[in-house]
Amino acid sequence: MKKLQIQDSNTIEITALLGVGHIGINLAGVRRRLGAFIVDLIVSSPLVFISVVATLRSFAQVQTIRGDFAVHDRISMLFASSPGPFIAAWIAAITTFILLNYLLSITFGRTVGMALLGLGYTAGKGSQPSPLRFFLRSIIGLFTGVFFFSCWLWVFFDEASRPLHDRICGIYIVRVL
């Protein structure tokens, strides 16, 4: 099997076995990437909450509900009337989270969680991935995340422990100094 040595940056040294996906020294570990994801969820939660509340309010204005109900009764009645508000709230939450992470990634080269944990993105030769790669990564991550987080299940089968959306888009999450 041929080895490919890529050494374009003084902070990244990647050794890849072609066809296997084995990547060497500075790749971020699964725990650190998962930690960055959890930090991103926590940091984005106020914006996600605002988008979900705005979405639910747009559905609630259409319905006539008596004024003597408690807030939780109104929400229960809203969800019981049809699945539309529930689905719309999930779409709003997921879209807000993905859009925020996409904008941070193309603007600063990493998300808040990645910055706090010392991680960054790189393409195969040490360059910054293009906005198109980030967009594809977000879309593929969304679809594989919807199906039981299958993107993260791929980590157990990939020798480099990269999620499926990173592997398909050619993006590496590396530790930066």
What are the segments in which pLDDT stays under 50 over at least 5 consecutive residues? 1-25
Fraction of residues in helix: 55-70%
Q: How much is the radius of gyration in Å?
A: 20 Å
Encode the helix/strand succession as letters.
EEEHHHHEHHHE
The largest sheet is: 3 strands, antiparallel
The average pLDDT score comes to 77
* Total strand segments: 5
- Structural domain tally: 1
Question: Which characteristics define this entry?
Answer:
7 helices; mainly alpha; 5 strands; two-stranded antiparallel ribbon; single chain; 177 residues; elongated
What this model shows, in words?
- The protein is mainly alpha-helical and 177 residues long.
- The chain has one domain.
- Helices cover 55% and strands 10% of the residues.
- It is built from seven helices and five strands.
- The protein has helices at 30-60, 71-81, 84-108, 112-116, 131-146, 150-153, 164-169; strands spanning 3-6, 14-17, 22-23, 119-122, 172-175.
- The strands form two sheets. A three-stranded antiparallel beta sheet has the order 1-2-3, with no helix packed on it.
- Strand 1 and strand 2 form a beta hairpin.
- Helix 1 (30-60) packs across helix 3.
- 23% of the residues are buried.
